[in-house]
Protein: Crp/Fnr family transcriptional regulator
Amino acid sequence: MTNINLPDPVAADLLARHALLRGLPPLAAAEVAAYLVGDAVPLRAEAGQTLFGEGDVARHYLLVGQGQAEVMRYGFNGDERVFRVFEPGTLIAHAAMFMPHGRYPMQARARTAFQGWRLCRRRLHEACRQWPDLALALLAGLSKNLYDQVNKVDWMTSSSAPERLANYLMGLRERQGDVVTLPLNQRQLAAHLGIRAETLSRLLNDWQTQGHVSGKRREWVLHAPAYLEKLATTAKRPF
Structure:
């Protein structure tokens, strides 16, 4: 992984369009973004390279410029569990900048060829003091993430494997349409859904036989979204 020389205005413009700053007045968003990237360090990594390790001292968070990155952990049995895939324009580990232990709770690695920036923890803290609306936006975002995780735990303990898979596929459909590309391989997806890899494979084979889906590996076509939507109904909450 090597540092590269990219213009800071590119990072500032990208950050100003992030949801964290979107609620601020345009001039304020641009000012905050310029401050946050003031000492940003551009970086590039090849697919599979570690961006930061679980337990490392958390001095920086990342802004994704191009490519994809993922955060993951290894289980006690050695299996890896991917928690989230990050696309261009997203921030990685900004919540870790406020954790009392000051360490990254997960490992991040480049999923594809990656280009982005390291942003400074100290500047984020100072910006929250200088722009209270930024601090409120951070709190709102972290609160939503907490709420989503509570709902996910409840859903994972009360749903069946078909319901979980259907809900996951419908989430992909919202962003990709009826032809979807799985961001995870099937073993990673099974771990993400809390089911066995064999169960996932059997479900996909059954649905393919029944004509609900077709495809292989990571490329799938959803032929019966109404069927999947009905299975996923219990995942929907009123607010």
